Amino acid sequence: SKLISLGQLEMTWRSRVHFRPLLVRVLHKSRLRYYGKPEKKMDMPYQAYFEVADGSGMMSMVLWNSLCPEWYNSLKVGTVLLLEQYAIKTSYPFKTQPTPGDSQMKRFATIEISLNVRDPPAKIHIIPEEVVKPEWGLPEVKYRFITRSELDDLPNNHSCDIIGLVTFVGRAERARKREHGEDFWLYRWAHAIDGTSDQPFILEIFATSQPDVFERIHPMTYLVCTQMRVVRDLTESPSSTIYLTTSNESQIFITGWHKGQPYTKDTKVKNFIQWTKTQNENDQMKKTVIGGYYPFPRPPNNFLKY
To answer: Whole-prediction pTM value?
Structure first.
């Protein structure tokens, strides 16, 4: 009875100074952002976005500064939170937007929840899943899993989730963030199969805020990538250059990390697991490759085109 819903918050936030507690579930999680600059003296210039939801809809929540190293790894997709002493700000207009698994969910895009160390000092409580009650009306985490056979029909920039058996993983490569800057993105290429097509998923996996997983992607692991974006080269023959790339909200999981994740209930994930049980491990092992240089998208066949 003492709670406020996200919907009520959006309608009444301007007329309030103190806000009643919120009970929400984390549906999406962005990578950790470092915004430090040499001339600014800040201890912990970190920021992370989460999309949280209750029965009324979904809203962005921002974790600031020293709260990031303290809480970032504990706040997983699916985690239920009780929030007290938070601030409300108008939304930052240029942030990336994940694609909700439930297309019917209402999105409150004008404001965001801000969690700070002080002014006011936010209180974050993680509610264990076993005590979460159905009558709280919190939405379940929903996904948009696709199979490899469905990929060829999807448009450029479409958002999806995939599961596959890794058959190739390339070395970590670097690309400059800006042409003459000193910052780099770290990424690696991977192939994963799911038995629905002769072709693998071609995945461009950027290092998200999960270094432990990123470094351990290897052949024969079950790989789940969420919030991936379809990339098509529309100038060449579209089918040959279709691949998936990570977005700001992508999460990656490999064998050993799957237990307890919300996607384990998904039908397509269950179908994939059934398919893997029909495969001979030694046969698949012979087809796997690791490391080496992987030029993709491939350069044209003749030099003039290049």
So the answer is: 0.90
